DNA sequence: ATTTACCTCCCCCGCGCGGGGGATATAAAA
DNA sequence: TTTTATATCCCCCGCGCGGGGGAGGTAAAT
């Protein structure tokens, strides 16, 4: 069987590994090539065995799933990575997903669903557990209503403050006096409690007042 | 049947609407309550009919899907929103998803999959088409190797430039002369082709040199 | 009718900072 | 060995900008 999916398991709990093996053995096109108990060992095994996909636990001693994912991404970018974690949706979801994995499932996943997830990932898709997906989407929502309330004019000025323009140049473009712009800028810094333009712009980005890219 | 899922269709192509109606009629627990040909009309209908979920086309005249989604989110946050679009995965995916929708499917979706998607969304999950999910995940990847190469020391200085510290204060913390810091800063601005500290910091964030949040 | 919010404009001061020119030392690369 | 990159340090100049003050005018809220 040349096109069986070669799987590497990495989890610090032997029980979990055995359980996964049982589940994966049910599928005739799956082949568990090896197991490892932490990221460091798993990384070495992945490099030498070159599996199609690794199922890796997020929380592990020595080297956790996130570190391992980053390392494996660099050394063997073609190996798919499916992250496993407990039922709790970790707050590190964002970072972990950004580490460049293809799948993220919780351990309470239905066996059949796990099989489908692996197939999906091997098929070039990305598989995220519904709860994880929700979290990821939530994190890209426009940020909470800004704790600082700027007037419409001030909003306009803040946007200009994020450009290379000097206050004088901004004044010209808005057809007002430089003093007016400077006055607004002063009020903005005051409201945002920021010491200077650079910090104010950065804070505005963090608050979602300014889009980083448009 | 009190618990049928009440669906509102919004698409500027009558053919597409009819097709969707055919598909959705197959499911006994779906009920298409009405249709609309653009976002403006659809928004009014949604407000008066209060459906469980709206399927809305992304590209439409008068008011497109994104605008409508934003408006509907504000007026009726409980109504689920499933975005529809052509086979092309739009570059606006990020914005659209950030508009706060629950689902995003392409029009070439299998009917059965669409039905599952609707059920998933009604079940409180988020459903993104695999290609869309991939795109979303890609967009959270660490950015490409920076076009500007800063020396280790310069990297350090850039991070400090994103803080409220003045160059003098940075110098103290790094135990070097203020002149040294200023010198590095000058080289950084030169390399990044940025006119001032504020712009340099912003550019650094965009490039992924600096994490917005730590 | 008085207050409040907002936008507009002005002056002064002093420091931060960008831009220009250097210099010196070390270590790696050519 | 000579060049190149990196890190350190120095001086000068002038403008940008932060912080302090104040003033006038309109419009909405009270």
Low-confidence parts of chain A: none
The strands making up the biggest β-sheet of chain A line up spatially as 2-1-3-4-5-6
Strand content of chain A: 5-15%
Number of β-strand runs of chain A: 6
Q: What integer is the average pLDDT of chain A?
A: 89
**Count of alpha/pi helices of chain A:** 10
Global geometry of chain A: elongated
Compute the separation of the termini of chain A in Å. 50 Å
Main sheet record of chain A: 6 strands, parallel
Biggest interface and its residues per chain?
Answer: A-B, 33 and 32 residues
Return the string of H and E elements of chain A.
EHEHEHEHEHEHHHHH
Q: Structural class of the secondary elements of chain A? A: alpha/beta
Proportion of helical residues of chain A:
40-55%
Assembly annotation: homodimer
Query: How large, in whole angstroms, is the Cα Rg of chain A?
Result: 25 Å
Account of the protein in words:
The structure is a homodimer of 214-residue chains. The mean pLDDT of chain A is 89. In chain A, helix 2 packs parallel to helix 3, helix 7 packs across helix 9 and helix 8 crosses helix 9. With 214 residues, chain A is an alpha/beta fold. In chain A, strand 3, helix 3 and strand 4 form a beta-alpha-beta unit. In chain A, strands 2-1-3-4-5-6 form a six-stranded parallel sheet, sandwiched between helices. At the A-B interface, helix 4, helix 6 and helix 10 of A face helix 4, helix 6 and helix 10 of B. The first copy, chain A, binds a DNA duplex (30 and 30 nucleotides) through helix 7 and helix 9.
